């Protein structure tokens, strides 16, 4: 935790959050390509692709990181609302979800779709004073100097790609503390 002190020794400024947050996009990450909203609900953009096909991989990778929270950074939240987007995830991931980068009450909700994904995530990071965070996305625009906090997925492969899985394992270990690694 970082506390900034002024000349008098009084704490001013900020206290960094101890939270550990994973920002999760859906399309191109937990399933390949995208999804479509139809009268029958949300369906895969390709009939041969199952929605959330790689969710079990992510759940397995997160299992040792019991304190990691998930914040949704997906356009599904704006399209469906937070509760419905959260409910679309399989239970092991859904239970870790604590919020989203989008909220209809934000002053810039109308321009949200045109805001680069990295800026959406970084606003949440800065607002909540996060130090330990990671984003998994197929859109890495707007992250600037924070690429060490990002795992980029190829939208055609998502988390089904072995190289992306290796990168995710490395980034998880870099950013988040495992319970068994804590000093006693």
Describe this structure as you would to a colleague.
There is one protein chain. Strands 7-6-3-8-9 form a 5-stranded parallel sheet, sandwiched between helices. The protein has a single domain (16-177), classed as HAD superfamily/HAD-like (Rossmann fold), CATH 3.40.50.1000. By secondary structure, it is an alpha/beta fold. The chain is built from 6 helices and 9 strands, in the order βββββαβαααβαββα. Helix content is 27%, strand content 24%. It is globular, with a radius of gyration of 17 Å.
Strand content: 15-25%
CATH superfamily annotation: HAD superfamily/HAD-like
How many structural domains?
1
User: Sheet with the most strands?
Assistant: 5 strands, parallel
Q: What average pLDDT do the residues reach?
A: 86
Helical region count?
Answer: 6
- Oligomeric category: single chain
Estimated helix fraction: 25-40%
Q: Strand order, biggest sheet?
A: 7-6-3-8-9
* Second-tier CATH architecture: 3-Layer(aba) Sandwich
Q: State the end-to-end distance.
A: 18 Å
How many E-type strands?
A: 9
Task: Based on Cα principal axes, name the global outline.
Answer: globular
CATH class: Alpha Beta
